[in-house]
Automatic annotation (TrEMBL):
InterPro entries with a match to the protein in the record: 2-oxogl_dehyd_N, 2oxoglutarate_DH_E1, DH_E1, KGD_C_sf, ODO-1/KGD_C, THDP-binding, Transketolase-like_Pyr-bd
NCBIfam families: 2oxo_dh_E1 (TIGR00239), PRK09404.1 (NF006914), PRK12270.1 (NF008907)
Taxonomic placement: Bacteria, Pseudomonadati, Planctomycetota, Phycisphaerae, Tepidisphaerales
Keywords: Oxidoreductase, Thiamine pyrophosphate
Location of the region described as Disordered in the Swiss-Prot/TrEMBL record: 956-982
Protein name: oxoglutarate dehydrogenase (succinyl-transferring)
Record keyword Oxidoreductase present: yes
Amino acid sequence: MDRLDFVTRVNPEYVDRVYEQYLRDPRSVDESWQQTFAAMDSGAPMPAGYFHANNGNGKVATGTQDATIRIASEMSAHEPLPEFTGPMPQLTIGVHKLVHAYRELGHLVGNIDPLGHNRTSHQLLELSQFNISEADLNRTVGSGGFLGPIDGTLRDLLAKLQATYCRQIGVEFQNISDKAQREWLAQQMEPVLNRPKLSQEQARAVLFQVLAAEEFEQFLRLKFKGAKTFSLEGAESLIPLLNTIVDEGATVGAEEVCFGMPHRGRLSVLAHVLNKPYEVILSEFKYTNVQQAWEGDGDVKYHLGYANDRSVSNGKNVHLSLSPNPSHLELVNPVVEGIVRCKQKIRGDKDHSKVVPILLHGDAAFTGQGIVFETLNLSELPFWRTGGTIHVIVNNQIGFTTPPHEGRFTPYPTDVAKMIQAPIFHVNGDDPEAVVWAGKLAIAFRQKFKCDVFIDLWCYRRWGHNETDEPMFTQPKMYKQIRDHKTTRQLYSQKLVADSYADQKVLDDMKSVARERLESSLKLAEEVRPRQKSATFNPLWKTMVRIPTDWSANTKVTRDVLAKVAEGINKFPAIFNPHPKLAELMKKRLDAVKAGKGIDWGCGEMLAMGSLLLEGTPIRFTGQDVQRGTFSHRQAVLFDQETGEPYTPLNFMVPDQKTHLTIQNSMLSEMAVLGFEYGFASADPRNLVIWEAQFGDFVNGTQPIIDQFISAAESKWQLMNGLVMMLPHGFEGQGPEHSNAYLERFLSLCAENNIQVAVPSNPAQVFHLLRRQIHRKFRKPLVLMMPKSLLRAEIATSKIEEFTDGVMQLVIDDPVALDREKVRRVLFCSGKVFYTLSEAREKEGIKDTALVRVEQLYPFPKKEIQAVLAKYRNARDVTWVQEEPKNKGAWSYMEPRLRELLPDPATLHYVGREESASPATGSTKVHGNEELELIQQALEIAPKAPATPVQAAAAAAPAAQPASPPARLQAMASSPVTQQMM
């Protein structure tokens, strides 16, 4: 029997299934079939030993004889094939390639631009690419794997492919490596040709939403001439899109939707999606709903947020919230993700289906701002996952005045999303039905696969960046076309009339209803009503006091509690193998607590977190290397030395411990991670949320989050937050990038009791600062300038009484028992420099100089400093001493405040490094000389002159070397206090 005769007995259905499976995922079929189909797909000639069989339905079986015999033995049927009547093998191969090509590239020739600038052809979609010609169009070729309804001809298949992938929706999903996701998307789109038909009722509902959005924008422009609204016009389909996602989401498990968006279209989204009353919005234009003084400074209306419970079509209520947003358009992205993650935790939403994030973007900002990339990266990491975000890019096809080709090099603004293999729907904003269908697909995909999904809403901006701009200055051709282009409402109205879904009376009635609502709301806006106040964002914050009068807190704990924590971290599972050094470290911490002395920073921090956990406060702690600590002082997570498995001792202090520490090393990002943690902290005041910079200097990568949210959110948006930022800070000869945490920047942001800035000098202070964050009836962000070399310095340890009997001290007076009547100089300082000065003072035997630590710089401890100054009545010299250059650190902040408190006739002086463009020198030697000079100036230690001319000449011999300082000061420069623990 020859080979062809043998193959004609092979089960054609089996071969068909194998080939279709290969097209979906080549690795899922036998290697011999992979080789065979790969040879076919490459167009290479069949080598000797290959043969073909056609099943008459457009499918070809190909393989070596041995492979075919082996596979044939697995088949259930071996009937001869019917006489060959179908397409030739090469045509069949081309048909399958054609289907794949349209799935992959059809979007490139889609009708997705409402202004009509679409490609009508693409070389890779030409029939010749698949060895097909127009002469083949009427041939019967089967489906080629396409799942939609066809009559079997190539002509109909091609038409259905174009209808599915080249109309008003273009889809990118072939870059997804997950087989189930790709198959699901094809199964949803192809049977309905990517356009299910709406009923009359559904179509009218969509039209009314578009109409209401347009009427709203026109009404604002008519009644408030010259006011900025950042109109949605040109993208009105956004309203039915978002409403569809909310309504459909409620049917598949969503109970809460959290939005983040820029200002374009924000007012319309507030009104028509979150149902913020028209009269509230209009009162903001008429200034009848004026911000009260105690509410802070407020913000412009198109930055404000809102929250509301909304009834949806299935009778359920969905909680909707829109986070306030600054003009840094994409900054809100990680903040919303953090809020969602926390709310999912509150709801016990382990599969991330109940709380859904939706982020809206502008096309220019999405491709231009790096925080987008960082946030997308976070979305795929387990500790930051929220189960997928629905991203909607309102594709204006322009930035402020910048066209796309000047703002990106990619065809679409969504191309950055391919890094996380998310499906992307490019949709024409002038086709509301296509937009609604994209929304249904997006929420269904997100809820099923818990992955991000993108909707690229192609539209245009009917006006300039805002209504006062003249876009014709920079885009005359584009805006001539826009001026003559019919609105989405007009185009869709014409369609419904043509489909007999509506007539002119229906359209007129819709307009009357929309306009009457606006007119009646304008009258209500003249008055201030309780209904006009913003909805409460989160009921968990109702117990918090907005304007605190008492900033104190009882943060003491008993020795028994401290012992329970210290003992708890030494209870390892029987099968756990800790590193011997770390096991010894844990024992030393226990010994220190039992002895009541020598409690170092790592232990003090552990006692703070452990005691809060035992009290029922969850703790979330993130940042680069936080599990170990950049300087190896923390060791909050231990790793089994045999298996590598992690173990967090603080989570197993007592049996059945209810509250846990979740501490996680973050990716190498600052801005997005800090934004996420800020968002998490803003959703629930019952959590202690901590972010630590690897080095304090790296906090400058987060500056927009600090400026726009951490320091200003309460004043702008009345949003409290208790986030803690730990920033290692200290000048220790490690260069400009590992010295300064930009203390001066934080102090420049301080006003209206907005944040707290502290430089703790011992572990007990950190203990009380962390506990104080929870044991007060309000929340304020806390910026902690943490040490490096002090982490293990014996001089900077604490006693047990400081934890059990003390509180956080805003100012610490000199611990040495000086004769206060003889003190003539008072040196104020913060942080490590205190220990440097104290050591030098002791060695020099200085008795007339007091050293006072200011532990909390803001809120400024005025009363406490006044009380200290009152103790030294004869002091005439008050000096601020700092390690930082004069234009950095706390001097510029402290100088006017200290000067105001000076007793007459005392004078104020500065001691520290000179002004510098760089935070610190890169030379260890120069650093040491600078520090010695600082000590000499602060303590008035004069460098000793050489005793004889010979000694002077010897000292001056190395021309490039400065005069040697006294030996005792050299010893100080090399002491553990001044050396950084890397």
